[in-house]
Amino acid sequence: MGRLIIASNRTATPGVPRAGGLAVALKDALDERGGGVWFGWSGEILDRETRGVRLFAEGNVDFALADLTQEEHEGYYLGYANDALWPVFHYRVDLARFDEGAFEVYESVNRRFGRLLSQLLRPEDVVWVHDYHFLLLGRELRHNGWRGPIGFFLHVPFPAPEVFTALPHHYRLAHGLAEFDLLGFQTKRDTANFRRYMVEHHGAAVLEDGRIRVFGRTIRAEAFPIGTDAEDIAALAMGVQGVASAQRLGRIIENRALVVGVDRLDYSKGLLQKVQAFGRMLDDNEEMRERVTFLQIAPPSRETVETYQDLRDQLDRLVGRINSDYSDIDTTPIRYLARGYPREVLAGIYRLARAGLVTPLYDGMNLVAKEYVAAQDPEDPGVLVLSEFAGAAEQLSTALLVNPHDTAGVAANIRRALEMPLDERKERWQVLHEAVTREDIAWWRRRFLDALDEARPA
Ligand code: ADP
User: Fold this and answer.
1) Tell me: the pLDDT tens digits for 31-63?
2) To 5 degrees, how large is the angle CA 218–CA 224–CA 228?
3) What pLDDT is attached to residue 51?
4) Do domains 4-227+441-454 and 230-438 have the same CATH topology?
5) Which of 86, 265, 436, 443 pairs as cysteine with 298 (C-beta 3.0–4.6 A)?
6) From the candidates 28, 99, 155, 453, which is the catalytic residue?
């Protein structure tokens, strides 16, 4: 079996212990195949030209890291990946900026990285490219003569063709995507969107076995819903630090039921709508005001960008208004913490919470939903209130599924979650738990790599 070569914008940090999740899963995949290379951006931004990769060996895995120049960082990362691809892939064409120069830099970084990576490849290797930063990396590897298998996994949604085609260079992106042998998406919905896009815009033919014939190539597109390290999360929730953080929070909220939300501060996460819905639940249910408290953890991400600053300001105002309406001397209905917490602490808090509120406007998967399920006490599980627009909703159908735009509906479901009898909570949770433990992160990477081994270029 050849080595595994992983390419992702950011890699795990060589030599630093990894907390869990994707970084551990990918490192396990590299180890399991007897070694390989993990290639990506070093995180360094230089103000001068940079060309080579730096190699760091960790056992039989080489981390190969390339720097970006200031201009590359602005065009490739901030300009095109963050300001065009991220919003369009999350159905926010209104927030996207289509800058010709940024696309050119995106293309040139994919070209340069493709060249660097191709120099590290050996004939029997298998390449696995990750996410929207590297949509053109397969094409660049082919230009550099690579004929071996290349898989691609998209961590974010693939939008409906009507939205994807808003990208002025979608045609070029399509050609790039067709150079991968296997395209993995989070959901069946994303896979169907991709297929329809290829058929309607590029005359692709879908073969009997589901493969797609397009631009003279035959490729495979399938759903591989990413999972979480469910057993580790459960252990963390019951571990010393998990229990201690739950106790610390429990002392403050006393006998009130806890509703929890954990998100990055991003416009795709529907934070304003979620807080509004919680406020509406308090408006509509006077008796609940004494009995419930909402903890929202949302550390700022990409705070340099104006859109994120606006979101932060709006959220601060909204939380402030609801709190001034409903706080009392000894109660605060909403605690909004703009910072991150270690996994142990989050796991303990998930387990304490009677309801987990995961209501993105659109999300590739949403691992918080799965972590919340994994952390519950089987004898007294909490209830997951989940957006139907999170990829996780395809697997987690016994959550209380909500439309995050429907304030009254979300409010009613928060109340329903808080009042749900133990039997129903257990019944719903058992189905969810079975899904998150069976289809966990190890299952995801094995399934993808097995499919990639079968999808060698025709
Ligand atoms: P996204 O990848 O869009 O951020 P996910 O829900 O799929 O959304 O993954 C987020 C990951 O980051 C989860 O593993 C979650 O535990 C972690 N995370 C999110 N918010 C926080 C936070 N405030 N503190 C620590 N970890 C967080």
Assistant:
1) 888 899 999 999 999 988 777 999 999 999 999
2) 155
3) 73
4) yes
5) 265
6) 155
Spatial distance between the Cα atoms of 127 and 132, rounded to a whole number of angstroms? 16
In CATH, which superfamily holds the domain spanning 4-227+441-454? Glycogen Phosphorylase B; (3.40.50.2000)
Task: For residues 350 and 347, give the distance between their C-alpha atoms in angstroms, rounded to a whole number.
Answer: 5
Q: Which of 278, 353, 267 is nearest to 321 (CA)?
A: 278
Query: Ligand 1: which residue has its CA nearest to atom 2?
Result: 366
Q: How many CB atoms lie within 10 A of CB 323?
A: 16
Q: What sign does the dihedral 90-111-183-39 (CA atoms) show?
A: negative
User: What are the extents of the domains in the chain?
Assistant: 4-227+441-454, 230-438
By alpha-carbon position, which residue is closest to atom 8 of ligand 1?
366
- Token duo for residue 314: 């709006």
58 forms beta bridges with 61
Q: Give the number of other CB atoms < 10 A from CB of residue 223.
A: 16
Whether 175 sits among the annotated catalytic residues: the reply is: no
Q: What is the pLDDT of residues 276-322, one digit of tens each?
A: 999 999 999 999 999 999 999 998 876 556 778 889 999 999 999 99
155 carries an active-site annotation? yes
* Rounded CA separation 82/79 (Å): 6
Nearest-atom index, ligand 1, CA of 21: 14
Q: What fold characterizes domain 230-438?
A: Rossmann fold (3.40.50)
> Residue 24 has what pLDDT?
85
